[in-house]
Automatic annotation (TrEMBL), chain A:
This is Glutamyl-tRNA(Gln) amidotransferase subunit B, mitochondrial. It comes from Balaenoptera acutorostrata. It is found in: Mitochondrion. One of its GO terms (cellular component) is glutamyl-tRNA(Gln) amidotransferase complex. Allows the formation of correctly charged Gln-tRNA(Gln) through the transamidation of misacylated Glu-tRNA(Gln) in the mitochondria. The reaction takes place in the presence of glutamine and ATP through an activated gamma-phospho-Glu-tRNA(Gln). Subunit of the heterotrimeric GatCAB amidotransferase (AdT) complex, composed of A (QRSL1), B (GATB) and C (GATC) subunits. InterPro entries: Asn/Gln-tRNA_amidoTrfase_suB/E (IPR017959), Asn/Gln-tRNA_Trfase_suB/E_cat (IPR006075), Asn/Gln_amidotransferase (IPR018027), Asn/Gln_tRNA_amidoTrase-B-like (IPR003789), GatB (IPR004413), Gln-tRNA_amidoTrfase_suB_CS (IPR017958), Gln_synth/guanido_kin_cat_dom (IPR014746). The gene is GATB. GO terms for biological process: glutaminyl-tRNAGln biosynthesis via transamidation; mitochondrial translation. Residues 26-57, 495-517 are annotated as: Disordered. It holds the Pfam family GatB_Yqey. PANTHER family: GLUTAMYL-TRNA GLN AMIDOTRANSFERASE SUBUNIT B MITOCHONDRIAL AND PROKARYOTIC PET112-RELATED (PTHR11659), GLUTAMYL-TRNA(GLN) AMIDOTRANSFERASE SUBUNIT B, MITOCHONDRIAL (PTHR11659:SF0). Keywords: ATP-binding, Ligase, Mitochondrion, Nucleotide-binding, Protein biosynthesis, Transit peptide.
From TrEMBL, chain B:
This is Glutamyl-tRNA(Gln) amidotransferase subunit C, mitochondrial-like. PANTHER family: GLUTAMYL-TRNA(GLN) AMIDOTRANSFERASE SUBUNIT C, MITOCHONDRIAL. InterPro entries: Asp/Glu-ADT_sf_sub_c (IPR036113), GatC (IPR003837). It comes from Balaenoptera acutorostrata (Common minke whale). The lineage of its organism: Eukaryota, Metazoa, Chordata, Craniata, Vertebrata.
Amino acid sequence: MATPMLRWCCPGRRWIFAGIGGGSRHGRGVPTGSTSSGKRGQSSVAQQPLITAQKPRKGEREWAAVVGLEIHAQIASNSKLFSGSQVDFAAPPNSLVSFFDASLPGTLPVLNRRCVEAAVMTGLALDCHINRKSLFDRKHYFYADLPAGYQITQQRLPIAVNGSLAYSVCVGQRWSQMVTRTVGVKQIQLEQDSGKSLHDNLRSQTLIDLNRAGVGLLEVVLEPDMSCGEEAAAAIRELQLILQALGTSQANMAEGQLRVDANISVHHPGEPLGVRTEVKNLNSARFLAKAIDYEIQRQISELENGGKILNETRSFDYKLGCTVPMRDKEGKQDYRFMPEPNLPPLLLYDSGSLPTGADPQQVIDIDQLREQLPELPRVTREKLVRQYGMRPEHSFALLNEVGLLEFFQNVMKETRAEPKKVTSWVLNTFLGFLKQQNLAVSESPVTPSALAELLDLLDRKAISSSAAKQAQCVKTRKNSILIKGGLPPHLQPHLTVSGGHKVPGTQRTLTNKHPEG
Amino acid sequence: MQEIYWGVISGTSQVWLGLWALAGGRRGFTSKAGPRVEAGASRRVLKGVGQILEPLALADFGSGGAVARPEKAIAFAYRLCAVATDRVGPVRSVLEDGCLCLRSDNVVEGNCAEELLQNSRRDVEEYFVAPPGRISWPKLDEKEPLSHC
């Protein structure tokens, strides 16, 4: 699975209007060879057939975009937020549903301790203030996949507020320049997920599966501190890595464990903020930046053409590559928030305020959770840079692929080669080879030990770099690699590969272009 | 703005009161007798809000009785304004001094699809069939579950 790469982004970028269609009376477009934001704007909308680039007029005013994000992350827990039914994503329909999840009368919510811990840990990792007392509310709306007619959430007084998320973007054409940006975390709240609706167009009916109804969600609301799709994508990527490092969510967008809604508006710098639209259904890391950039351009062109932006909800159509209004969101929604009458306030403690003689199962100690926090990605990257003299962008790349960092560290344990050489080999040759074969690191036929040995040979100049590259590709049925052809016997090592991975017809002999010894 | 004791008023009345205050229906809270609610003004506000709330809350504001009930509730609630509540926080929940019990993260229920589906008038291969009317048909690929509001 290709992980999103950090792309080039201009700080505090300004947007230039790219003219829509030939009939535009303003006839403005992306300036050639000027600001980088202009170029970026052009490439991001290059696939949109309607937008054509034209020369700008003199005195053209710049636009600034404001992007805020709301992220819903499914909590990695065994059971649901308020009931004891299982959390699983591949079960027969409606088999993981309790009476409470189906909203049968006479059932009551009981809060899952693990979900509270997950929320506190995430709040601590994002430098939030943890509210010692937080409240639950009901958010009412009618939809077939919400059997109760309301969702239990924390609208008024959530569990964590006022944090920040640091992320990095590349500036400049080359990858070597990375800058750190910060986006404010407005709040983190616990809430229930809804069930799933599946539309059967053939029979004009909607099928409902409540397996997901009641699963715990962490809603993370980011302040509108971002100004383009790249920044948003980078922030989301960092949040994903943090949630995965904490173990609070698997945060896999493709599996619906991480869902993003964006609030987007544009305005002229120095003027008040514009009307914002909400773009939902941003469930793909690949299209996140594209969708946001499209909406920014759409708003700019609408305003430049004398139109108005409606405060509406839109959805991103992946096939057409554009945002479209969501049909069932006509008119303003009124959620009629009210306090959840079945749940008392959630009280959290720290080591100074722990009630004496309390049942430890019933009490959550924030300080204890803080001590148990695992290492965050930012710290891991800093350590790599310090320990190995690695370039920051390499530390990002190592953390960007599941299992790659562990692989690298295992190779480092066993090899005598220089860290820079190992880094370069792992990130370029090894990773390139995996991508080519469409393998995850966990599926690699080459073990860290094997690679370590290979790199030692390379280091001793016993084999050439091209021979080493080929050696990496060779597998035999007997789980050993034989480097043949040209190497003296005492330099023919037997390298072990991970077992069971049979690839038909792969026994090859190497041609050694630089025989030595 | 003063908080009103929500326990007295049903959920929908929250909206009424908010709009009422916006419509300038609010009187000072120093009067011992409490403010008088202008009948004509309240009916105008209720009519407008009712049109918005009907589809959202599936509530019927068409009949005379349907408007009269919240009118009475609002009038009653405003009598509470005679009570001095400076620096006294509202009771948001009768459970506010209660203890929120936490549950261990174990799977102890579920696996009763057959039982649950018996409650449904129609079902298709262990899925509930949604009643028609609220869901519009999107143009998007049907493999993607519809995301709701």
